[in-house]
Amino acid sequence: MLETNVLYYGDNLDILRRYIPDESVDLIYLDPPFNSERNYNVIFKNEAGRNTDAQLVAFEDAWHWGPNPEKVYAYLTNSAPHEGRVPDPVTSIVAALRKGIGDNPMMAYIVEMSVRLVELHRVLKPTGSIFLHCDPTAGHYLRLVLDAIFDARNFQNEIVWKRSSAHSDTTQGAVHLGRTHDVIFFYSKSAVTTRNVVMIPFSKEYVESHYRHVEPVTGRRYRLGDLTAAKPGGDTLYEWTSPSGKSVRPYKGRYWAYTKEKMAEFERQGRLVYTKSGMPEYKRYIDDNPGQPLQDIWDDIPPINSQAKERLGYPTQKPEALLERIVELASNPGDVVLDPFCGCGTALIAAEKLTRRWIGIDITYLAIAVMKARLKDSFGMETVKVLGQPTEVEGARQFPDRAGQRQERPRQQRYGARLERDNRTRACGPRLVPHVRGADQGDAA
Ligand SMILES: C[S@@+](CC[C@H](N)C(=O)[O-])C[C@H]1O[C@@H](n2cnc3c(N)ncnc32)[C@H](O)[C@@H]1O
Fold it and tell me: How far does residue 279's CA lie from ligand 1's centre (Å)?
């Protein structure tokens, strides 16, 4: 049985395999760490001869090719170990990418992500969806892998989230243009999928240019609409007389769009405005209009700035509005939302707020401590169950070769204890977090 509203402490690959049953989750959001900005050149450098393991350690610097990705690669490309759990197209794509890219941090990242995406596909219900948050450095490779796992026919959108305002890189000598957006790949597991209509309010510019009139007494903004139509439909060629006594018919070759009775109703409601010649026009109020359906460019959700109320100081923290939009779009109340790289738990906060159930997984003590404190802070949850939380000795055994993790753990534990004691999420404010180095530097970093 799937336990929900719980946190798992550990490597998500291990947790997924051990605890999360097949087809049990409705929505997955993942925002894996990736050191793209700082390491763009490094991630393609050949690492042949280097004796480092894949450092999937959260908030260590990068991913590296080594014995572990080699082992995962062998699993993904040999049917004996995976026993049919890895679809053939995934094997082919991963093998082709290795041939083209070589053994380097980028390939380590692709291999480690591929094996996790296979598991995430397994745990998703047939009606479920996945949203993979990344940036353009590795996005194109991940999309090939996602197509192979989820089937290109289930690709729904490449969402562009404008995560920062203009950069000054160019004035500082950068050749590339300012890199200001993240990419969120959105796939469903099948054609029959949970989807809700999300409407977005019109932008200020749109409102000002398209709804130019303001009613003096009510202050309501409106635009004027034509009341004629190209095709006839019943009583639509009558003569209409305005309150000032001017009578008009529809323009040549056109018809009234409404019956005379309906026009009289508009007149009673004060919806008609007349031109000098007496032609009626219809007042469309902006507040009658819920906005426009959500599109794939999201530039209306600002990143978390240094003064934001929700800012916890956790590197790479994403805005709650972004996660609420995703949760609202692709799940219903009571559904299960999973974030396997949950950081300070923004997806879980959005899920709880919107009455979904949730599961969070993270590999660091700090993230688990921050999430517990944040859930307590936001929703008064006194106890949140943490599964897989090792004692210090067990922990050391569980992550034996993760040097950075081992070094950080005591510090993170002290942190966690302090957060719980003080009943605060903000104990990890900007001054405290930087000694946990960010793998990808989010806007909050
Ligand atoms: C970019 S952050 C996620 C931020 C999150 N979206 C938020 O709003 O707070 C990535 C997180 O993934 C975690 N992580 C990295 N590797 C992991 C793994 N193998 N298993 C579980 N969590 C992992 C890191 O500890 C980090 O907290």
Answer: 62
